[in-house]
């Protein structure tokens, strides 16, 4: 199931517009959590959904949102973030995470710098969470998006090797957490 955090019919037309919308929710984590929890609760109304098998996955801002859903304390088997933001408004909320966490990160992503990565690791380690953080050398933000181009100096670019490796790691993770 795909979730529309921005609102019905709201579709950013450019990277700048997407950035402005993401910034709105990053600066209001309560609103972000309300939106993603509403989607989660809606998902639970479907009788075909096994609530013990839910894995939330997001790319970029979606990765940030996936982590926020986990930090909100809902029951999840797993949380996956592809080149998503890792910052937390309250690192103690990591204690609320109930599922395993997989972070697939571009090692030279200027939008998610080393300081943010280190703070995330400290947050997860302090909460004693089961997480994996995999950094792909030579990869920047959007390394899974072929439409991002190949100029890493722009901060966002496709990286075929990192993309392929991340997909394999995701498969391993899914097998571990839900047996797929």
Provide tags for this entry.
180 residues, four-stranded parallel sheet, 5 helices
Would you write up a description of this structure?
This protein is an alpha/beta fold and 180 residues long. 39% of the residues lie in helices and 13% in strands. The chain is built from five helices and four strands. It has a four-stranded parallel β-sheet with strand order 1-2-3-4, sandwiched between helices. Helix 2 crosses helix 3 (61-71). The chain is globular. The mean pLDDT is 94.
Summed up, the helix count is 5
Task: Report the strand count.
Answer: 4
Let me know the average pLDDT. Answer: 94
Task: Specify the overall morphology.
Answer: globular
Q: Quote the beta fraction.
A: 5-15%
H-E order: HHEHEEHEH
Largest sheet: 4 strands, parallel
Percent helix range: 25-40%
Low-confidence segments, ≥5 residues, pLDDT <50?
A: none
Describe the strand arrangement of the main beta sheet, using strand numbers: 1-2-3-4
**Rg calculated over all Cα atoms:** 16 Å
Task: Output the structural class.
Answer: alpha/beta
Termini distance? 17 Å
């Amino acid at each position: 199931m795909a979730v529309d955090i921005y609102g019905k019919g709201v579709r950013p037309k450019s990277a700048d517009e997407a950035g402005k919308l993401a910034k709105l929710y990053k600066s209001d984590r309560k609103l972000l959590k309300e939106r993603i929890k509403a989607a989660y609760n809606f998902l639970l109304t479907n009788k075909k959904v096994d609530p013990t098998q839910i894995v939330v996955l997001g790319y970029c801002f979606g990765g940030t949102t996936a982590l926020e859903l986990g930090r909100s304390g809902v029951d999840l088997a797993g949380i996956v973030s592809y080149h998503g933001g890792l910052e937390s408004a309250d690192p103690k909320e990591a204690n609320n995470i109930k599922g395993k966490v997989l972070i697939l990160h571009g090692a030279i992503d200027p939008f998610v710098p080393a300081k943010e990565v280190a703070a995330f690791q400290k947050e997860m380690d302090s909460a004693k969470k089961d997480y994996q953080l995999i950094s792909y050398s030579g990869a920047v933000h959007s390394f899974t998006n072929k439409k991002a181009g190949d100029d890493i100096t722009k901060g966002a670019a496709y990286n075929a090797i990192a993309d392929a490796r991340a997909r394999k790691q995701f498969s391993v993770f899914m097998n571990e957490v839900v047996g797929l």
